[in-house]
User: Which sequence fits this backbone?
């Protein structure tokens, strides 16, 4: 699948374990805008999310789960997203790579975004 732009958002609830490790459930929405003449594809990822790092400074993480396809041609597949982030107060700047894969297709993107830590 060829796409030049992807937009989405995620909500996660992370539990704090021993100060350096956070883990919890995640759900989101992703839309891949395809080239003219093709329908956009949409996914709802449901995953387990893990973050390891120094609290309020720097962290690395991984989201693993399944992305449910909302398009007729894309039923869904394995979802993964390694990430790295820098937190300043309640806002984190995150760089990640996300992928959705199945036997018949693969969708991936490089992402730059913000996380709000409430």
Assistant:
């Amino acid at each position: 699948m060829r796409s030049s732009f992807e937009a989405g958002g995620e909500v996660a609830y992370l539990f704090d374990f021993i100060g350096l490790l956070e883990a919890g459930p995640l759900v989101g929405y992703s839309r891949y805008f395809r080239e003219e003449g093709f329908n956009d594809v949409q996914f709802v990822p449901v995953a387990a999310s893990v973050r390891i790092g120094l609290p309020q400074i720097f962290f690395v993480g991984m989201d693993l789960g399944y992305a449910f396809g909302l398009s007729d041609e894309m039923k869904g597949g394995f979802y993964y997203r390694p990430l790295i982030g820098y937190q300043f107060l309640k806002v984190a700047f995150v760089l990640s790579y996300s992928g959705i894969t199945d036997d018949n297709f693969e969708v991936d993107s490089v992402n730059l975004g913000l996380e709000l830590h409430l």
